[in-house]
Amino acid sequence: MRKTILFVLLTAFAIVANAIEVKRVEPLSWWTNMKMPLTLMVYGEDLADAQVSVARVEGKKTITDQTGLTVRGQHNAESRNYLFLDMDVRQEGTYKITVKKGKKTTSFNYVIAQRRDNKGRESFTSRDVVYLITPDRFRDGDASNNVMPGMLEPTDKTNIHGRQGGDIQGIINELDHIVETGATAIWPTPLTVDNDRTFSYHGYACSDYYHIDPRFGSNELYCQMVEQAHKKGLKFIMDIVTNHCGTTHWWSADLPYKDWWHQFDEYTATNNAFTTWYDPNASAYDCKVNAEGWFDHHMADMNLDNPDLLHYFQQWAIWWVEYANLDGLRVDTYPYNEKNPMSRWCQAVRADYPWINIVGECWTRPASAVAYWQADAKNFDGFNSNLPTVMDFPVEEAIRQALENDGAGWGNGMTRVYDALAMDGLYANTNNLLLFVGNHDMDRFADVVKDNDPRRVVIGHVLMATMRGIPQLYAGDEYGQRSADIKMGHSGLRQPLPTKAELTDDQMQIYKQISHLLQWRQKEPAIWKGRTMHFMSRDNTYAYFRYLEDEAVFVFINASEEDRVIPTQHYSEILSAYNTLGIDVMTDEEVDLKRDDLKMEPLSYLVVKLKK
Q1: Residue 72: enclosing H or E segment and its boundaries?
Q2: Which of the following is catalytic: 338, 361, 396, 447?
Q3: What is the structure's pLDDT at 489?
Q4: What pTM was computed for the model?
Q5: CB neighbours of 424 closer than 8 A, spacing ≥ 6?
Q6: Which of 136, 208, 332, 396 is catalytic?
Q7: Which of the four, 59, 85, 94, 599, has the lowest number of CB atoms within 10 Å?
């Protein structure tokens, strides 16, 4: 099927006398038995009000009297160069769609395939560890695509802000390493075309929603990457952006509708006031600027209140899930979108894939603000986002603040982490929180912990690996990688994965501990589906249990710069339910938690497996 689809993608529509020029047809293909209705967006020259007919292609024959694919309805856009075709899909096959206007005509083939059998599929869950990659800054696996025709920005490895040449082949080459870290799922930042003249490497200013950027590879290679990841037990998550597109997108010179994206008399940036979505005191002005203001000068804000655009984005996400056999989705800048259309977007995707997990980047605080965006939250206004998973920015902030200094002072240090977890009652599902200590949009974790201390780096990852939720590891953090130049912001922290030969002894020790712990957690149900009980301390230590009826995991963190004795007598209410003779998961040595003289060195941790 892929070869057929790519033939459709790459075949130029003939321009001859009395022919209509059709430049694009999206989605590129479709499938039978989908709940999402198929609407083709056909773009060309003066297509409005054209007559459309469909014939089935069988070998060299075309059959006009068929019902496998038919036009149920059609409508124009404001631009007369667009035609929207509502299709009835009943049978797989190749179909010839003919567009006629007056004496001019053209035709193109369209493929309908049988959808995959997704019975028994599982998306990413709290059992998984997600490995986040910025592809251009990860590994250059194919130097031949570093400069590509039609792409405005070539690779320039001497420019810290430019493209570094990382690509899909580089990810494929590192799949074994990703498995070795203990990760079970991969989330690359966007790989679709971004044709900005500068800073195109991050991919968040999309120029074409249906094609992989050729500097990363091809649609076919993307599918091969997903397939090879699956063979190694890795799930695959696609990063998508519904809030904005790049101003270099192919439709920018000829929008279907004037309100396809939000427009102002002069450039107007979003005010980032996410609270306006639920603030009873918010002004209409602030609400409008939050929802409609642009993310950046080169990122046009999409208008999801336009029904044709919303349907386009629903189909687009579903197309990639089916085409590439994806396991999950991550949605960028989620609260910047219009909230009700995005709720319907999530609903539509999960109608076709009830098993799929979608995580939204809700970069806001406090926990009550983040919890608002999770599906089935008990919101005062009755709003339901239908978004299963949100990113846990409150806990990320607490861990960073706890380890960026010595923790002295009331409410500082590990008390911040305790207080963050105390907000768990606000969430509809704490197992569906994406938990992290670093990502591609913030200073490297090893840059911000006090003294860049490897012990503090490990402690942060121990917390992430053993708490409720879905851990996410940013590529390079398994080594405690630091920014090339912290003053350079995003460009400085998004650097290629170091090779083993480049690692210091400290980095190798960090890697051994983090990878061991992440591999261990894959076999521990108490970690990925247990409850939490934690204990307050004001001495920059933190203790908690993850527990099920027949087993538990005890975690003790000493983030202070002094020796601490574990106050095991404080934990009797839960310890009494288990055999207190447990196993240190890092050393496999026995630990007796009945002892009241267990001493922890400064900046150390203990993780103990307990059974009945």
Answers
A1: strand 69-76
A2: 361
A3: 85
A4: 0.95
A5: 430, 468, 532
A6: 332
A7: 59
